[in-house]
Amino acid sequence: MAATSSSSSTNNGVHEVFLSFRGEDTRKTFTSHLHAAFKRFEIRTYIDYNLERGDEISGTLLRAIEDAKLSVIVFSKNFASSRWCLEEVKKIIDCKKTRGQMVLPIFYDVEPSIVRYQTGSFATAFARHEERFRDSDRPNKKIQKWRDALAEAATFSGWDCSVDRLESEIVEEIAMDVLNKLNRVYVGDLDKEIARYDQLAKHQMQYFQGSPHPLHYQNYKDSLNRIRKLQMERHQRLLRIPPNMYSQADDLNNNNTNIDNGIYNLWSNVFRF
């Protein structure tokens, strides 16, 4: 991660999620795909793609972690080799304890047990940290805090990306999981579909008026029905109606055909087709 926030993705400086990751491992792969999914679901995310600078985490980054409702940590093979990343995790765990911040670990190309017990590549990384701090007055406390933070973060319920699945599917599901944890609902995809069918229906109506024909009217009616179903699905998401109740309501609407038939008969009499 970087010391500046110039490339962070936020709305007027307000973000819901802080995304922690090891740049050299996942910046151009998994993390970029995950960030793109967050954008699609309109999840305001603090992320910085710049390179790390120095040993100390910046005040800007500390405040960004504090302001987040949820922190997503993308653990990867070389995550522990970055003192910057370790400081982020320590701060995230502190915020969980003091602010009730939610934490979602993601294990990408690394087993959760390796993170929790600092074995494998994490053991190698910590050996280097201990060597570097050997002559320092504060090595043991600092390194132990990093170890404790990693161990705790690895115990939280999260996502293991080592499973044999498409990465595109996993990032979409993670984005949905984050939405649920934030107690938010996404309807942007439905709004776009409703707008598209609304435009289509207007064009179909104009075409029908210029060239009245039963098929033209049917196309128009199909578009209106599609809009109705999309609007119902939108309400279902916003109100969080159980799927079985939604399907029952949809059946009732489908059975109520007398209004549509009445409209069709009216058009038939007017245009005599």
Automatic annotation (TrEMBL):
Matching Pfam families: TIR
Residues covered by the TIR domain: 13-182
SUPFAM superfamilies registered for this protein in UniProt: Toll/Interleukin receptor TIR domain
Gene3D superfamilies per the UniProt record, alphabetical: Toll/interleukin-1 receptor homology (TIR) domain
Keywords (A to Z) from UniProt: NAD
Domain of life the protein comes from: Eukaryota
SMART domains xrefs: TIR
GO biological process: signal transduction
PANTHER family, alphabetized: TIR DOMAIN-CONTAINING PROTEIN-RELATED, TMV RESISTANCE PROTEIN N-LIKE
Record-given protein name: TIR domain-containing protein
Organism: Arachis hypogaea (Peanut)
